[in-house]
Amino acid sequence: MAKDGSTAATDGTATGSGDIARSLELLWGTGERPGRGPKPGLTLDRIVTAAVAVADAEGLSAVSMRRLSAELGTGTMSLYRYVPGKAELLDLMLDRVLGEPFADHPGEPPADWREAVDRMARGHLDTLRRHPWLLKINQARTVLGPSALRGLELALTGLRGMGLRDPELISVIITVNSFVEGLARTRADEAEAVAQTGLSDEEFWDNQRPYLERAMLSGTYPQMAGMAEDTFSPDFDHFEFGLHRLIAGFEALVQERTAARK
User: Fold this and answer.
1) How far is CA 131 from CA 98, 100, 135, in A?
2) The whole model's pTM is what?
3) What is the DSSP string of 139-183?
């Protein structure tokens, strides 16, 4: 039961579903140190690092306090002296991986907003590729830690030159992130489908080929039948195409607003 009397989620796939106050204390370093008897050398940082490693290798469902205790060579109860449970641990894991793009691009964001959008999109895609379990998390109510706030601060700094209103700048961030997450989710789903069915993409579509060929020859689907042979080629880079179109669309809006102010 949450402090406000509501029932918190227990499946570990929604941020902010545990003890929010405790998560904030841990994220911002204001929580008390563990009580008596922790294993020497065990730290909150080591616990979060181990949890991220397990999630990267086997998915979020594999992360449990029992599993982490085995990975760290300690008793399960020792972990609870550092973090209340998986819900709060997820908040810490999320803030940890959100901080990774800063390590790749230390310092101030680029002065040109177009480069800022480009860097934001590529950084987000890299993070999702390294940690596909992020796509399984409900982040509608993220507990904001230092990395999350720093990311938003840097994004807004890089986009400020667009000259848009604050709600519009937030919408730019949402639009870019939604585009990236859509493509990343498609790729992750494709890999998961192969793992679950044992069928490669080629084998999957080969099974459908006779039916699709008859459908294309029927005359019922003229637009589909008339498409080029390379229409669905994996060589086409949908990320680059979409990102460039997004930037071009934002640029048209910026130019419109600039002209209106003259």
Assistant:
1) 10, 11, 8
2) 0.87
3) -TT----HHHHHHHHHHHHHHGGG---HHHHHHHHHHHHHHHHHH
